Amino acid sequence: MAYDTSxxxxxxxxxxxxxxxxxxxxxxxxxxxxxxxxKAAAIPSADEAEENVMYLVKNEKTGHYDIYVLVDxxxxxxxxxxxxxxDVAGDIYTGTxxxxxxxxxxxxxxxxxxxxxxxxxxxxxxxxxxxxxxxEYEKSSYYFSGTAWEAITGCVDAxxxxxxxxxxxxxxxxxxGNWTKDKNGTKLQETDGMSFMAILKEIGSxxxxxxxxxxxxINGFGLSGAGAVxxxxxxxxxxxxxxxxxxxxxxxxxxxxxGVVASNWKVERITDGGAExxxxxDAASLPAGSDNNGGNGFIIGDAGGANAVASLKxxxxxxxxxxxxxxxxxxxxxxxxxxxxxxxxxxxxxxYTPFRNYFFGATAEKPALxxxxxxxxxxxxxxxxxxxxxxxxxxxxxxxxxxxxxGKTGVKKAINETALNADVTDTFTKxxxxxxxxxxYTAKEYNVWVFEPAVPYENAAVLKVTLG
Length: 468
Description:
Helices cover 8% and strands 39% of the residues.
């Protein structure tokens, strides 16, 4: 075999060989010139280093030599050796094996058997590149110790070990992981050219496609103080809470999330009179805000009036972009593609709504039976509902009153617990009185049950009054 100096490896070829990740290795080798291995006490600086020189620097922790070269004006670590290179420096050669049955040593021997081949010396390195039928399988490197060629490759990742042939599945079984065959048959499983890691993944890792497990939704948002309030209650400023967008989720991944982000938030006031936009914010989240109805405020009422509303709530709408493509259980892109679509999400706050109190109590005085007097009694603090209320009558009381908004059943029975549970329902007289809401809000008719004894109550009494 004639010695060909073009087979000496260039600096780029050295880096490609050491890292085993550059597929252009063969192309680089064909253009290569000459490279030198040189020991160094420390990693030289980029200014000190020379091109086409592999600097061997002893790693005191591992006991091996780390290999550094000058690449694009900077010192780069290529690999380390797994053998002792003390007092060694040499050249690097390469050869190609096209027959998988041939040994690496036969390729090296043939190279140096050529008439004009260089003389082997301690420290020389030889790289055998295996290419069969145009398919690159592996690159193996050897170091000449002075007496023999020794493997310099060291530990090899599972994804670097390549199968040279297909696997014949045979035996009394029908499955090995994801591989299947007829129980008593045989099957030639295609593995030629696959890495050992790829084979393991194919056997033990079945690809499962993802789903959208949760669509985007709005977190937070609400209306401070919202709920049922007495008709006529003023709300000078309605304050809504901040909101953010939950980006949703995918089954499996990616770990960084769906990537869904809000771009705009619209806030609307919703009343019994309709909807009106009060804010628009271009942002990923919505800050808290307020609405004072143009400085007029609101009255929560059930009988109309200036700035009066029978219901007051707020609606937020978040507009968001599309999500990133979901990943399958092995981290690959979903197929067919799964991704959250761009769109919008809406959420309503709770609402302010009005109710009319009912009133009850007993007094020693008997002033005019009007709105002011009735509103001075005990308030229910909630809307009318059937049930039993307790009316405590103090000694000296001259009047007992229960007032319920018209249209409700009102008093069905009154029992005096302190008088042997006597039924005193018939002692009450029913009247009609117009009673205002809070803050003088528009009056509505109430049915008022009144009992005025001939003489004041001598002792305190407890009445249990059933409202129907």
